[in-house]
Amino acid sequence: MKLTFPLLLLLVVASQPATSATAPYREFDPMEDYLPHVKGDMSLSGSYKHWKDPANLDWRMAGSPDENWKLNWKFMDPPFNASVHGGHFAADRGEEIFHELNRKVGRFGKFAICLGARKGNLKGLRSQYPMYRKDLKRVAGLEEVIEHCAAKEGRELQNGSYDNSAVSVYVASQSTGMPIKINVTANGPLKAAYERGRKVFHARAGRINLACSSCHTYQIGLHLRGTVVTSPYGDVAHYPVYRTRYQLQSLHLRFVECNLATRTQPLKPGSQAYTDIEVFLTGLTNGYPVSVPSERD
Amino acid sequence: MRICTRFLCLFAFISTAWLSPSAFSSGFPTDFAVDPSVVNLTLEPKVVVNSGKLEWVPFSRDLTPWVSLSYADKRPAAKPRQVKLVEPLQGDPVRGRALAMARDKGYCIVCHQLPGEQWAGTVGALLLSFKKHKYPDELVFQQIFDSRVFNPISVMPPYGTFGILNEQEIRDLVAYLQSLD
User: Among residues B96, B116, B115, which one has the least CA distance to residue B107?
Assistant: First the structure.
């Protein structure tokens, strides 16, 4: 039988369901052997040496677009940034909502206990997130848990909403200055999420076929038009962050912004892929102090 | 059409079959930020101050045809594709320059330095005085169409394979680059 073009086309189309059962073709950037601690940046971008000692920050670098990324934007964080900005208003709003939700049952507030605060004390809580939640049966970020715990108190605080992020800012602000400390090396759900996140970080996607790592591993410090590509180490300790364009932006909304900028279909906040990337980036941020409320341009 | 017509048509058809919304047999993955009732499908978030709800508004373009980071998205990505440029080039360097600056087309300037433009990117190779390299048109055409053929981990978007630029637009870009003294 002669294979005509229409027949060939028909054969290819008919064969598609058979191939869909196998793993789809995807591309990944080469995976670096990341150290899950901020000092791992020394073997990636090297910017760590400029900000590891906050007392010796070279403030002249803050004025140059080619240099300021090397300070990890510490000059816009507390206690270096003394200006009052939208992050502080969010912290006030978050405090208000937190106390409305935190009804006392016995000696401690129920909402705080639900968030995972030992004896209702928020100090140090932010530096332990994301964490595995038995009640959710998965690893979850702080904003997802805030949504979950608020719902138990009868209040809707959608992940990514202003009020949700405001509560997150307030809770995080109680840990400002305390180093991020999540264990992604011991076997368990957090390590599994870290490894998945590492893979997603290197997965090519979207209309222009880019992975997070395509820029944030191999192009750090270089220009993309007017912006300078940053290191993946240390950044997540600032979130949720006040940004002039976005009011208050949670980390997952930042991922949405990254996806949209690279023409990739965004996911909803709290999706597993975003949570896994959050775990991966938080693992890289181990040792970096929680820096909230902070602002970015 | 100057590239093998049948294979281009075949590829276009397969791409459509794989990458269209209908590739999801039971609707979009639940974690997609989409609204099937809006034209562009893709949504972007809008944070409303002092609200517990996150608003979503239509994004300026539909991003659902390309693979996403969702674990529920099992569509394959388009594989690297080698093409043969049939001479003559017949590209328009003026149109090529416009494409190199256009955000939704080439937008080469985001990574590459080009003459007469400030705030160029530094990620990509310098394209100033491109003509002096004397690269064959066919090589430049393939690099823009799908650079993964030369370098599997290239970060340059596969403009032809992913349908960002059509064949004539890539010819225009090649003509523009080859005109840079």
Answer: B96
Q: pLDDT per residue over B61-95, tens digit each? A: 999 999 999 999 999 999 999 999 999 999 999 99
DSSP label at residue A28? B
Task: Name residues 36-65 of chain A within 8 A of B (Cβ).
Answer: none
Q: How far apart are CA A270 and CA A142, in angstroms?
A: 10
Superfamily of domain A86-173: Cytochrome c-like domain (1.10.760.10)
Residue in B closest to A86 by C-alpha = B49
User: Which of B44, B77, B110 is the last residue in one of the domains?
Assistant: B77
Q: State whether CATH 1.10.760.10 applies to domain A38-81+179-296.
A: yes
Residue in A24, A209, A218 closest to B74 by CB: A24
Q: Do A263 and B162 touch (CB under 8 A)?
A: no
pLDDT-derived band at A246 (thresholds 50, 70, 90) equals confident
ipTM of the complex: 0.89
Q: What is the mean pLDDT of residues A24-41?
A: 94
* Residue B64: closest C-alpha in chain A: A265
First-last CA distance in chain A: 66
- Domain CATH for B136: 1.10.760.10
